[in-house]
């Protein structure tokens, strides 16, 4: 019960903060003197775990969220009328969550104080961390997997006679990828079984391998495309570098501010 109450209070406190900012949004419902807007529903939607969110993005789903917000407002108003918010355990939870919301708001405020990152800072980071912007060799491949070498040799002969690799994969491959015509997508070097990788990386674009044995069985591999290992240019890496530096500066801003406030407020931590 307490956990559910905490989640509801977080939603309510976020909802209140959202409702008090920005332009006047479309009003969808009114409970007493309180208006529930389209913005409130959209904000409520963001509080739902992403794995479930899509089912609430339909008109029917948003109506369900609106109905829930109406219930939250009705019941919270009634709880206040009954002075449930004055109960010590409820008041402590409300106080804690209010502080938590304010802490998050202040952290967001501090992040806005990180100015634009200069070009020379970005370049300096790139030069210092070049190895982190290496793109490993990768291939786009299909394969057919069977249990025995004899089966694989027979399939190889059929491929040489002009049979479609994708069609044969659908017909005979015991790998789940067989349903997709053996499609494995893009695979980076280092992410394949060693025996498979050694052969796959040696193939040219469009080439089909001989039979390859791994612990999974016997494979025939087709490479559809290849990208050689290469160094990302500064232009290619720039957005990622800017994101990294911004995060670093934000953490520094938060850490420095905490130290300053601890000193100003004379924080004392007592031993156990």
Helix and strand topology:
Layout: H1 2-19, E1 27-31, E2 34-37, H2 38-46, H3 50-53, H4 59-81, H5 88-112, H6 119-128, E3 134-135, E4 138-146, H7 149-160, H8 165-172, E5 183-188, H9 194-202, E6 212-214, E7 217-227, E8 230-231, H10 234-264
Antiparallel strand pairs: 1-2, 3-8, 4-5, 4-7, 6-7
Tell me the radius of gyration.
29 Å
What's the mean pLDDT score? 90
Shape: extended
Alpha-beta content class: alpha+beta
Note down, in words, how this protein is organized.
By secondary structure, this protein is of the alpha+beta class. It has three domains: 2-98, no CATH class; 113-131 and 233-272; 137-228, Chitinase A, domain 3, CATH 3.10.50.40. Helices cover 55% and strands 15% of the residues. The chain has ten helices and eight strands. It has helices at residues 2-19, 38-46, 50-53, 59-81, 88-112, 119-128, 149-160, 165-172, 194-202, 234-264, and strands at 27-31, 34-37, 134-135, 138-146, 183-188, 212-214, 217-227, 230-231. β1 (27-31) and β2 (34-37) form a beta hairpin. The longest helix has 31 residues, at 234-264. The two termini are 31 Å apart. The model has no long low-confidence stretch (mean pLDDT 90).
């Amino acid at each position: 019960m307490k956990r559910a109450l905490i989640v509801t209070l977080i939603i309510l406190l976020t909802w209140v903060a959202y409702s008090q900012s920005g332009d006047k949004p479309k009003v969808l419902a009114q409970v007493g003197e309180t208006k529930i807007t389209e913005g409130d529903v959209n904000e409520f939607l963001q509080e739902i775990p992403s794995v479930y969110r899509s089912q609430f993005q339909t008109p029917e789903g948003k109506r369900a969220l609106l109905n829930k917000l109406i219930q939250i407002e009705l019941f919270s108003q009634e709880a206040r009328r009954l002075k449930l918010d004055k109960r010590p355990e409820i008041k402590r939870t409300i106080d804690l969550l209010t502080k938590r919301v304010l802490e998050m708001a202040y952290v967001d405020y501090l992040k806005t104080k990180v100015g634009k990152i200069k070009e020379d800072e970005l370049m300096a980071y790139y030069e210092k961390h070049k190895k982190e912007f290496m793109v490993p060799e990768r291939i786009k491949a299909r394969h057919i997997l069977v249990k025995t070498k004899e089966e694989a040799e027979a399939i190889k002969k059929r491929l040489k006679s002009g049979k479609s690799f994708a069609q044969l994969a659908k017909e005979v491959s015991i790998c789940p990828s067989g349903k997709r015509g053996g499609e494995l997508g893009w695979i980076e070097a280092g992410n394949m079984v060693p025996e498979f990788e050694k052969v796959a990386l040696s193939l040219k674009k469009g080439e089909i391998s001989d039979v390859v044995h791994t612990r999974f069985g016997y494979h025939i591999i087709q490479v559809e495309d290849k990208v050689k290992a290469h160094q990302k240019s500064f232009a290619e890496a720039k957005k990622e570098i800017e994101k990294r530096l911004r995060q670093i500066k934000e953490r520094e801003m938060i850490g420095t501010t905490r130290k300053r406030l601890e000193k100003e407020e004379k924080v004392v931590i007592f031993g156990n």
